[in-house]
Write a structure and sequence with these properties.
Layout: H1 21-71, E1 76-84, E2 87-92, E3 98-101, H2 105-108, E4 116-119, E5 125-128, H3 135-139, E6 141-143, H4 157-172, H5 174-180, E7 188-191, H6 198-208, E8 212-217, H7 228-242, E9 246-251, H8 266-283, E10 291-297, H9 305-308, E11 315-318, H10 324-334, H11 346-352, H12 358-374, H13 382-397, H14 405-408
Parallel strand pairs: 7-10, 7-11, 8-9, 9-10
Antiparallel strand pairs: 1-2, 1-4, 2-3, 4-5, 6-8
Helix pairs in contact: 4-5, 4-6, 7-8, 10-11, 10-12, 12-13
Length: 409
């Protein structure tokens, strides 16, 4: 709480009766000067008080609005399931309770079947959610122009060629497929160890074709409430159609497409329901000219056979660990912007890092640069790379940073 401003002392005028007229005039002038100074101080304080009063009024307004918000009843999310002359059937999220509620003429003009709306305690529709507030915007990564290029990927020339044939060619040159009379592959599944460049390949193709890159983690498709995962799958394909040309990339697809079991738990049932919706969307996604589907997994052995049959993922491409030549190329890519000493030997580094993935090789180059910075040097030496290698191996041994090779050998 601010203190009240201290008022300046009021100047007093003491005139000596025996002083001369000149002395009295000088005293009066000095008194007037002091009065003017005091008046200016009071004006400044008055202005400060007015500003403070305005701040307090603004704070009071904010508190009043917050108080009104706290007193306002919360609204619930629901989906419009059906519209008829009797009203609208809405299903409240969370408990999946379906209710027939009256709809005003004004609101009837705004809503359609499938819209997400807000309802009050009486299940009356209050508002329609905009697309920006839809749950899909919170779960999907949409990149209009990925920055990854083919030159950023090393050691995967054959795998990249297959991905380009299945994804890039139908987007860039669809008339070639029409001339030959074949349908392009409906989907591409990339499988292999973590960090080998699966996501980078998808982004590079999106960049080359000027397509929107839409990424969704398979774990995000597994929702808590019944029906939410299926709706998110529909939203995913709807968004891809809206953003075409687009590349739809589903990472960690094993989270939602694992082999089905006889488990009767509600969680497993919901995962299987979501997978069936995914299969349905892929089967019904006939016009794929401007939308391509790529999925990736580290656990190919866990996938259900239904997701692997032709017509869903026609191309199954293994992305292996980089070999000696590939590791050398990857290190070269990640060090092309670095200030390296002439003694840095790519071949020796590639031989030493057998079993490293592309991501781990990138980590190696970063750590080498950090060692140079620590020594206040602008040049990265071979000794820095060796120290970085020792650090990564040490972390792998104590479990803090395990390379993929440490648990597949």
């Amino acid at each position: 709480m601010s203190r009240s401003p201290t008022l300046p002392d009021r100047p007093t005028l003491d005139l000596d009766p025996e002083s001369s007229p000149e002395e009295r005039l000088a005293a009066l002038r000095e008194h007037l000067r002091r009065l003017v100074d005091v008046n200016e101080q009071l004006d400044d304080q008055l202005e400060a008080v007015r500003d403070h009063r305005a701040d307090l009024r603004e704070e009071v307004d904010d508190l009043q609005r917050e108080n009104e918000t706290l007193k306002t009843a919360s609204l619930y999310l629901a989906t419009v399931e059906d519209l008829s002359e009797d009203g609208a059937v809405v299903k409240q999220h969370g408990n999946n309770q379906e209710v027939l509620t009256d709809v005003s003429e004004r609101m009837r003009e705004r809503i359609e079947v499938g819209d997400r709306v807000t309802i009050n305690d009486s299940f009356s529709i209050q508002d329609v959610l905009d697309a920006e507030t839809d749950a899909r915007a919170q779960a999907m990564e949409v990149d209009q122009s990925p920055s990854v290029e083919y030159e950023d990927i090393g050691g995967l020339e054959e795998e990249l060629r297959e991905v380009r044939e299945a994804v890039e060619d139908p987007l860039v040159n669809p008339e070639q497929f029409a001339a030959v009379g074949v349908e392009p592959p409906s989907g591409v599944l990339l499988h292999g160890p973590p960090g080998t460049g699966k996501t980078m390949m998808a982004k590079a193709v999106a960049n080359e074709t000027d397509a929107t890159f839409i990424k969704m983690a398979g774990s995000e498709l597994v929702q808590k409430f019944i029906g939410e995962g299926s709706r998110l799958v529909r939203d995913l394909f709807d968004l891809a159609a809206q953003e075409e040309p687009a590349i739809l990339f589903i990472d960690e697809i094993d989270a939602v497409a694992a082999e089905r079991t006889d488990s009767k738990t509600s969680g497993d049932a919901e995962v299987q329901r979501t997978m069936m919706q995914l299969l349905s969307e892929m089967d019904g996604f006939d016009e794929r000219g401007d939308v391509r589907i790529i999925a990736a997994t580290n656990r190919f052995d866990m996938l259900d056979s239904a997701i692997l049959r032709p017509g869903r993922f026609d191309r199954l491409i293994e992305v292996p660990e980089p070999d000696q030549e590939a590791r050398e190329r990857i290190i070269e890519i990640h060090t092309r912007e670095m200030n390296l000493a002439e003694a840095v030997d790519y071949e020796s580094l590639a031989a030493k890092t057998e079993g490293f993935s592309g991501a781990e090789l990138e980590s190696l180059t970063t750590e080498a640069g950090m060692f140079a910075i620590r020594d206040d040097r602008a040049e990265v030496t071979m000794a820095d790379f060796e120290a970085a290698y020792e650090k990564i191996v040490e972390n792998a041994e104590d479990g803090s940073l395990p390379p993929y090779a440490s648990y597949v050998r």
